[in-house]
Amino acid sequence: MEMANCRRCKRLFPRIREPICNDCMQADEDLFNSVKEFLRENPKTLIADVAAETGASAKKILGWLREGRLEIVGGELKCKSCGEDITTGIFCEPCQKKVNADLDEMESSVEAARAALQADRSNIVTMHSRKK
């Protein structure tokens, strides 16, 4: 298991996946729950006001929106591809479908290239010199 320093608190921890330790991840999760509860009680609140009331940074709140963990009302988020208003994530639904289709096509191309390379390798004859 790889050991790493937490990006936030700098403590050494056994890194499995995330660049922050379990304590910092739990603090983030508690903050997220606080923001979510605040938004339940105060829908349609501006991000700056949510940040001021909960202590979460606007950047962190936008990150949760981009991750799809929160939804926004009022069109402050824009699709990264076409610029349409979205409520969560990075892309609108049509653009997300196009991105997924493009990724599927790329994956198929990579698999085909890998198969062709493997077939080419099977036709290679190697020669070795004999000791006399």
Kindly describe this structure.
With 132 residues, this protein is mainly alpha-helical. Helix content is 52%, strand content 9%. It is built from 4 helices and 4 strands. The chain has helices at residues 22-41, 47-54, 58-67, 93-122; strands at 2-5, 12-15, 77-78, 85-86. It has a two-stranded antiparallel sheet with strand order 1-2. Strands 3-4 form a two-stranded antiparallel ribbon. Strand 3 (77-78) and strand 4 (85-86) form a beta hairpin. Helix 1 (22-41) packs across helix 2. 8% of the residues are buried.
Q: Which features would summarize this protein structure in a list?
A:
flat, 132 residues, 4 strands, 4 helices
Q: Which overall shape is indicated by the principal axes computed on the Cα atoms? A: flat
SSE topology string: EEHHHEEH
Unreliable stretches covering 5 or more consecutive residues: none
Major beta sheet summary:
2 strands, antiparallel
Topology:
Layout: E1 2-5, E2 12-15, H1 22-41, H2 47-54, H3 58-67, E3 77-78, E4 85-86, H4 93-122
Quick overview of this protein structure:
The protein has helices spanning 22-41, 47-54, 58-67, 93-122, and strands at 2-5, 12-15, 77-78, 85-86. It is mainly alpha-helical and 132 residues long.
